[in-house]
Design goal:
Length: 393
C-alpha cells in the first residue's frame, strides 16, 4: 500500500482538525486509528498510508486531496483509476455473480457518492465508484420487477457521479459511455424527472465536441417533453434545463436565446427554494451563478454583467462546492478580459480554496493562470506557485 510523504501532511491534518474543533483523541476515534499514530503523523514522525489518509479525511468530512502533501498525487490517483471505471461499465449487462446489499444500503451508498460529486471530492468517487457500479449492475439484474425502477435510478445517479470524474479529467469517450448508461437506466423507470436529469448531463458531450447549436436543440427537445411545473421537483427540473440551455446558447453566440432561457430559468428559480433536486442544484442562487456563466459564454462584450453580479452578490456557503468554485473560475475569466488581472488572480485563489481538485484540473484555470503569468512577469512567488500547481504553461 502506498504512503503519503511525511512533509506537510501532518500540518494539514492538524489544521483541518482545529477547524472542525476536534481533539486528537476525537479525530483518532472517528477515523478508527490509534491516537498515538495520529500524533506521530501530525508532528511529521511518520507517513500515512492511503487508507489512513482516507479514513482521516472521512472523519474530517473533507476530500483526501486536501491532506496530500503534493496535491498532484490526487490527480494522478484519479487518472490512474479511470481504467477501473471503464472496466466496471464494460460488463454492465453481464455482471458477475456476487452478493448484493439490501436496497436501503445501496441507496445510502449512492447518496454518499452524490455528496462527493457536489463537493468535488473526486478522489473519493474514483476509489468507490467502480465497485459500486458493479454491484448496482448485479442488483438491477437480480431485482424483482417491482424494485427494478428504484435500482435503475440508483444506476443512473451512480453513473452521473462517475461521469463527473471522467468528464472533468478529459476522458470524454468514457463520459459519453456513462451518459449512454444513464439513458439506458432511465429508460427502465418511466420517470420524467430522471429523463430531464439525463438530458441535462448529456449536454457535456456537446460541450466537449464544441457542438453548442446541436446541444441547444437537444435541450429544447428535452424541454418539450419535460414534466409541467406542478411540484418543486418538476419546476427545478425544467429550470435546470433552461439554465443549461442559456449557457449553450451563449457558447453558440445566440444572444437572444441565451437571454430567453436565462429569463425563464430565473422565473422558475424564484418559485422554489435553493436546493439539490434529482442531483442538480437549482434555485435563485444557482440561476445567478449561471448569469455569470452566460455572460462569459457570450464573450468579452458581455462580461460587464458578470462583474455587476459579483459586485452585488457572492455564492452562499451552503451551495455545492463545485458550483461555488465554478462561479469564481468564470468570474476570473471576466475580470481578466476586463483588464483586472489582480482581481482575476484573487478569484482563482478563492476557487482553489473552495474546491481545490475542481479548480486545479479546470482548463480555464490553466489558461487564465498562464495568461496572468505572462502579464505579470515581475510578480514573484504566489502567481508562479499557483501556475505550477495547476500545470499552467
Amino acid at each position: 500500500m502506498s504512503s503519503a510523504p511525511h512533509s506537510g501532511i501532518g500540518r494539514r491534518i492538524a489544521y483541518h482538525r482545529s477547524v472542525t474543533r476536534l481533539t486528537q483523541q476525537q479525530l483518532a476515534d472517528a477515523a478508527d486509528i490509534h491516537v498515538g499514530t495520529l500524533r506521530k503523523i501530525e508532528r511529521g514522525a511518520r507517513g500515512a498510508s492511503d487508507g489512513v489518509v482516507e479514513s482521516i479525511a472521512a472523519a474530517l468530512g473533507i476530500d483526501p486531496s486536501l491532506l496530500l502533501a503534493d496535491r498532484a498525487q490526487a490527480s494522478s490517483r484519479i487518472k490512474a483509476a479511470i481504467p477501473a471505471l471503464s472496466a466496471a461499465i464494460a460488463a454492465y449487462d453481464v455482471p458477475d455473480d456476487a452478493p448484493v446489499r439490501a436496497l436501503p444500503l445501496l441507496q445510502g451508498a449512492v447518496a454518499e457518492a452524490v455528496t462527493w460529486r457536489l463537493a468535488a471530492q473526486y478522489v473519493q468517487i474514483t476509489r468507490h465508484a467502480p465497485s459500486l457500479l458493479t454491484e448496482l449492475f448485479r442488483a438491477l439484474q437480480a431485482a424483482p420487477p417491482r424494485h427494478q425502477p428504484d435500482v435503475a435510478r440508483l444506476v443512473a445517479s451512480a453513473c452521473r457521479s462517475a461521469d463527473a470524474v471522467a468528464y472533468k479529467f478529459g476522458a470524454h469517450d468514457l463520459s459519453a459511455r456513462l451518459i449512454d448508461l444513464m439513458r439506458w437506466a432511465a429508460g427502465q423507470t418511466d420517470d420524467s424527472l430522471l429523463d430531464s436529469m439525463v438530458a441535462y448531463v448529456r449536454t457535456e458531450t456537446f460541450f466537449a465536441a464544441h457542438a453548442h447549436e446541436h446541444g441547444l436543440r437537444a435541450l429544447e427537445v428535452a424541454l418539450d417533453s419535460a414534466a409541467s411545473p406542478g411540484s418543486a421537483a418538476s419546476t427545478a427540473a425544467r429550470g435546470a434545463l433552461h439554465m443549461r440551455a442559456a449557457v449553450l446558447a451563449g457558447r453558440a453566440g445566440d444572444v437572444d436565446s441565451a437571454h430567453t432561457h436565462l429569463a425563464e430559468a430565473r422565473r422558475l428559480g424564484d418559485q422554489v427554494p435553493e436546493a439539490v433536486y434529482s442531483g442538480t442544484a437549482f434555485g435563485p442562487s444557482s440561476v445567478r451563478i449561471h448569469e455569470v456563466s452566460v455572460a462569459v459564454s457570450l464573450g468579452s462584450e458581455h462580461v460587464h454583467r458578470a462583474l455587476e453580479v459579483a459586485r452585488e452578490w457572492a455564492p452562499p456557503p451552503e451551495l455545492p462546492a463545485e458550483r461555488r468554485s465554478g462561479f469564481y473560475i468564470e468570474l476570473a475569466r471576466a475580470q481578466l478580459w476586463s483588464g483586472l488581472p489582480d482581481h482575476a488572480f484573487e478569484s482563482l485563489k478563492v476557487a482553489r480554496k473552495i474546491a481545490p481538485q475542481h479548480t486545479r484540473d479546470h482548463r480555464w484555470v490553466r489558461e487564465n493562470a498562464a495568461t496572468l503569468r505572462r502579464l505579470k512577469r515581475a510578480d514573484a512567488k504566489s502567481l508562479t506557485s499557483f501556475a505550477e500547481w495547476c500545470h499552467a504553461t
